[in-house]
Amino acid sequence: AEQIEESLQLAQLWLHESERVYGDRLVSPQDLKKYKDLAAETAKKIFKEMSPTSLMVEPLFFVHFAHGIGEKQYDRLPNFAELSTLLTQALTEYNETNAVMNLVLFEDAMRHVCRISRIIESPGGHALLVGVGGSGKQSLSKLAAFVSGFTLKQVVISATYGVNELKADLQQMYRKSGLKSEGLVFLFTDQQIADERFLVYINDLLSSGHIPGLFPPEDVDDIINTMRPFVKRAGLADTRDNAWNLFISQVRENLHMVLCFSPIGEPIKVRTRRFPALVNCVTIDWFQPW
Q: Where are the beta strands (DSSP E) in 170-227?
């Protein structure tokens, strides 16, 4: 709210957020054009006193790093040149401490980084990136996580990796995000679904954050005891339920999933029908052919 000082800026923010919520879910360029025409028509009716030229300016992007990487202020970036400078700087810093990513930051790629960053910066925000293999979903997610200052986690699939190993990885992420308030991005692809039962845990993580049976009883007791001082500090009654609920709310605030799925074939259709949170509890970003 402190960043919005003019009515024009508020109207542009409304247009931007509407496009992120509705426009990013659309699959075809024709549908997106229809959406933009409707948004422009609606904006002209609501914001009659504003010039359509200044209102519908392109590019229209609000990001959490508009004032610099690490400076979390949600504001508009005026042009792609400024966005490119910021993301190129971030990519250089990322490559200094991680496996080098040779990314070409053209306009569409930068748009996707902004979208992913916006999703994971939101409390309880999870992303579903839909696109064919090799479209840059994982690389751009890694850059977006870095820009947001989050630690990126991926599971390492092997011949012996099963449900128990996934549970162990999730337990570790839950402890870091729930007990230490560490910002995490869990990057998971459809190629890593070695067992369809993985999606039972992921569906629960996305929908409520509470995964039944994730922790053994003795670990639940340890977590509840660790959370008791935070429960008292929050002014809540010192009960097991309050301690556990506060732990889960911390997890939901700090742990964000980024799912990378291919739209080709039956698997995505079957999985999203069987596990509705894969669609209902995420923000979808379609990766169109470059």
A: 184-189
Grouping H, G, I as helix, E, B as strand and the rest as coil, residue 214 is: coil
Question: CB 279: neighbour CB atoms within 10 A?
Answer: 15
| Nearest CA-CA partner of 182 in 135, 218, 157, 150 | 150
Give the pTM: 0.90
| 3 state SS of 54 | helix
> What is the CA angle 189-100-77, rounded to 5?
80
Q: Are 165 and 198 in contact (CB under 8 A)?
A: no
Which tokens in the block code for residue 113? 């980084």
Question: How many other β-carbons are positioned within 10 Å of the β-carbon of residue 257?
Answer: 24
Q: How far is CA 273 from CA 12, 224, 255, 260, in A?
A: 36, 35, 24, 17
Crossing angle of helices 163-179 and 217-233, in 10° steps, is: 20
Question: 53-108: per-residue pLDDT in tens?
Answer: 888 888 888 999 988 888 888 888 888 999 999 999 999 999 999 999 988 899 99
Give the position of tokens 């922790």: 215
SS3 53: helix
Q: At residue 141, what is the residue type? A: S
Residue 42 predicted with pLDDT over 60: yes
- Please report, as a single letter, which amino acid is at residue 132: V
Looking at the DSSP assignment, which residues form a beta bridge with residue 127? 258, 283
